[in-house]
Amino acid sequence: MPHKLLIIEDNQSIAKVQKHIGVKIGFDVDVAYSLAEAITLIEHNNYFCAVVDYVLPDAPAGEAIPFTIGADIPTIVMTGKIDSQTRDTVLRYPIVDYITKENRQAYHYLETQLRRLPKNEHVRILVVDDSAATRNHLTNLLNRHNYLVAVAKDGIEGLAQLEAYTDIKVVITDNEMPNMDGITLTSKIRQEYSNEDLAVIGISSTKDNQMSAKFLKNGANDYLSKPFHPEEFYCRLSQNIEMLDAIATIRLQANSDYLTNLPNRRYFFESVQEQLTKNLEQQQGITLAMIDIDHFKAINDNYGHDAGDDVLKGLADFFKQHFPEALVARLGGEEFAIFFANHTYQEAQQQLENFRIEVDKHSPTFSQDNIHFTLSVGVTHQLKTRVDEILKVADLHLYTAKESGRNIVIAD
Ligand SMILES: Nc1nc2c(ncn2[C@@H]2O[C@H](COP(=O)(O)OP(=O)(O)OP(=O)(O)O)[C@@H](O)[C@H]2O)c(=O)[nH]1
To answer: Which residues carry this modification: 4-aspartylphosphate (predicted)?
Structure first.
């Protein structure tokens, strides 16, 4: 079910633009052209958030704001008035944000905010501060933007919370705290997490004008002096989260195969090598298999390249369903590899044999052209120090599988 967005705006053209933005993001949008209409809609619907005009025919001075706030709807105020009295009136309410309708940039900003709010439901922020009042204040600010929150009253508790919640993306930490201060906490965090995985924002009310440099030199991504304005707090927080998201997206793209979305060759080599080093230390077995579609060239020749792509995508989905615990990658072309870290050799071989049989049976359901195909598989459990050496052994078995007529699993 899409989230519901309420727009309260009497200017029809502006309402149309806002609705377009909301629909583009994926909201189910209702528009009210007056406060009276909005009240009726709020009575009958559950809104995820609202965009509220400051001046309405039946609410000329921001009177609509307390209605959405009172109904617990996260509220973004849009206003054409930019005087400081209006701003002060607006900011007296616990709103998500206010945006002045000065130019096109305002609508880009609205779009950014509307995109962020649903995402924030999955982002956890850790607040570390020895003052209960500050912890509560920050928790309220964060809840207003839909973030999940964890709290700690010193650095030691902060580290424990990081262990307890693996979804923490940002740590906001005070410096002056008993047991462990914020700067020590930051440097300890950096021993475990890079600043591309977890952002740290230092906050302090100290007069020491070198505090921000101290935080940053110890690995913080950002710094805010207390007291800070909520607007600045939100802007810096969302900028840090956007940066983490952008890095995660780039990483995912660099590690995935564009056609099938499976991990690619580079990712497979890196993560198997890492796992291999661990297994060699612990003398634990591994299983690695190379899998190749039989006569794939003929599929391309007979049905066309797009149909060939369709087969590759269908097979990749089948891999994902069948091997949720193993690492499956597309090495290139019609060649795939699987790495089993936690299965006995017999179990892994059996799973591969079952998979070969299932593909022979069900492959026509994978593609629009109902193309039947089979797989040849080479599998090994020879533990060597390098991935490419193990792949070479699996590849030799794969060659034997092809030579022996295809549609077969050959193991050592
Ligand atoms: N549609 C499609 N075809 C691809 C892609 N990458 C490689 N191919 C084709 O995959 C085919 C692989 O052919 P071959 O290496 O001769 O192997 P084969 O026909 O499967 O024969 P055997 O492996 O001996 O059973 C070639 O025709 C490539 O052009 C891709 O991303 N999409």
So the answer is: 53, 174
Kindly state whether residues 211 and 284 are assigned to the same domain. Answer: no
Domain limits at 78? Answer: 4-118
Which tokens in the block code for residue 34? Answer: 């007056």
- Cβ contacts of residue 179 below 8 Å, gap of 6+? 154, 155, 156
Verify whether ligand 1 is closer than 6 Å to residue 374 (CB atom): no
**195 DSSP 8-state letter:** T
Strands (E), 158-298: 168-174, 199-204, 222-225, 287-293
What CATH number did the domain enclosing 166 receive? 3.40.50.2300
**Tokens matching residue 265:** 């060759």
Q: 259 CB under 6 A from ligand 1?
A: yes
Same domain, 112 and 127: no
pLDDT in tens, the chain (412 residues): 889 999 999 999 999 999 999 999 999 999 999 999 999 999 999 999 999 999 999 999 899 999 999 999 999 999 887 788 888 888 889 999 989 887 778 999 999 999 999 999 999 999 999 999 999 999 999 999 999 999 999 999 999 999 999 999 999 999 999 999 999 999 999 999 999 999 999 999 988 889 999 999 999 999 999 888 888 999 899 999 999 999 999 998 999 999 999 999 999 999 999 888 887 777 778 899 999 999 999 999 999 999 999 999 999 999 999 998 899 999 999 999 999 987 889 999 999 999 999 999 999 999 999 999 999 999 999 888 899 999 999 999 999 999 999 999 999 9
CATH of the domain at 390: 3.30.70.270
Q: Are strands 97-100 and 75-79 parallel, antiparallel or unpaired?
A: parallel
ipTM at complex level? 0.96
Q: Would the CB of 308 count as within 6 Å of ligand 1? A: yes
Largest CA distance in the chain: 84
CA 45 to ligand 1 center in whole angstroms: 54
Distance between Cα 302 and ligand 1 center (Å): 12
